């Protein structure tokens, strides 16, 4: 449910009663993996999705029934050779879902988790899966909060501590935690959102902020020119900073989850910013410009003391080759490359590639990057 936390937080603030169906297990091929969620409120409104439409109709009914009953339940959808009209994934896989009504004693815990994620905080949330006795509760852990723990799975304090310890050790941040007595809990961890620092308050920056925000990035736009670096020009940025880009980078502790995109064309600003970014830990560093701009920039970066290993991290011309022309198309090309680097994608068309449709989130070396020549838009 944390995948749609911002929208569900709004429902909580509006006082809506609703149920959330979350994918907790997948066998074979499925459009969405564990963690995908769909919510249905008391009036029948829907948020999210779990299968691209294959089972949503039947799941809508399940959510409505769980909300009426007030108790969690599970649902399983698989192809049935004896019933061709049964709801099932068209790609042949099997999916198991946990359906949790956000009502009663568990509502406060779940609402706090949703609000924390919507506000950019880190949380670990566990929900008891039906079976193994009473249960039915929810357990929240917020690292760094004054009152870090909240709620209970309903199986006692000892089980809560064990479940939390096992949840925090899960690879990938989500999965089913197995507990004594045949009990199970679904766990989701959400770290603070990755950051995207955009250097240059230009129209491409506004388009990139628009593209990156739905991908879960907290966007900062930085420019030394106060007339351009305004919140009004970048409504989707979490922060607009009027300062030299190198000083802006010096004041931020980036991690390998973060990205830096330099969209300026002035060596006074982009070279010092790229020196900071390429010497830092950011997982993606890209710079806009044509091939000619790129070659000139490399000369300046070498003169500033960067070595070949540091320069090899620079993705420039920025973005995948989509033959982009407009700011929106260019932002799509940049965002696509950021996702490919983050997820370990190749950036090549899937048609005829034989590559898996859904990566496992493990970062691998990319194939030689496809480059976007921005001569027509970036000079």
UniProtKB/TrEMBL annotation:
It comes from Streptomyces zhaozhouensis. This is Xanthine dehydrogenase accessory factor. InterPro entries: MoCofactor_Util/Proc, XdhC_CoxI, XdhC_Rossmann_dom. Pfam families: XdhC_C (PF13478), XdhC_CoxI (PF02625). Residues 196-338 form the XdhC Rossmann domain. It comes from the Bacteria. Residues 349-368 are annotated as: Disordered. Residues 11-77 form the XdhC- CoxI domain.
């Amino acid at each position: 449910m944390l995948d749609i936390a911002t929208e569900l937080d709004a429902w909580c603030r509006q006082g809506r009663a609703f149920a959330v169906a979350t994918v907790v297990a997948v066998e074979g091929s499925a459009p969405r993996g564990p963690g995908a969620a769909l919510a249905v409120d008391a009036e029948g409104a829907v948020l999210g999705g779990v299968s691209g439409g294959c089972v949503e109709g039947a799941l809508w009914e399940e959510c409505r029934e769980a909300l009426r009953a007030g108790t969690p339940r599970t649902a399983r959808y698989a192809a049935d050779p004896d019933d061709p009209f049964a709801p099932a994934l068209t790609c042949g896989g099997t999916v198991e879902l946990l359906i949790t009504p956000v009502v009663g004693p568990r509502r406060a815990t779940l609402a706090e988790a949703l609000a924390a994620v919507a506000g950019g905080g880190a949380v670990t949330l566990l929900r008891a899966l039906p079976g193994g006795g009473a249960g039915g509760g929810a357990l929240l852990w917020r690292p760094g909060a004054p009152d870090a723990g909240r709620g209970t799975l309903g199986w006692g304090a000892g089980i809560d501590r064990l479940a939390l310890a096992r949840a925090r050790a899960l690879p990938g941040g989500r999965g089913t935690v197995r507990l004594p007595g045949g009990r199970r809990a679904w766990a989701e961890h959400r770290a603070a959102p990755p950051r995207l620092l955009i250097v240059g308050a230009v129209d491409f920056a506004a388009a990139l902020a628009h593209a990156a925000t739905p991908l879960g990035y907290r966007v900062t736009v930085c420019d030394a020119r106060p007339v351009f670096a305004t919140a009004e020009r970048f409504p989707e940025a979490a922060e607009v900073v009027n300062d030299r880009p190198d000083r802006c980078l010096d004041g931020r502790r980036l991690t390998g989850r973060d990205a830096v995109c330099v969209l300026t064309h002035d060596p006074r600003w982009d070279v010092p910013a790229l020196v900071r970014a390429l010497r830092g830990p950011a997982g993606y560093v890209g710079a806009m410009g044509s091939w000619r701009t790129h070659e000139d920039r490399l000369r300046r970066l070498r003169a500033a003391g960067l070595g070949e290993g540091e320069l090899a991290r620079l993705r420039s011309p920025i973005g995948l080759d989509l033959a982009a022309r407009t700011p929106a198309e260019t932002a799509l090309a940049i965002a696509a490359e950021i996702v490919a680097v983050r997820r370990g994608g190749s950036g090549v068309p899937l048609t005829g590639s034989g590559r898996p449709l859904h990566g496992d989130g493990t970062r691998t070396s990319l194939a030689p990057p496809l480059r976007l020549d921005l001569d027509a838009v970036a000079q």
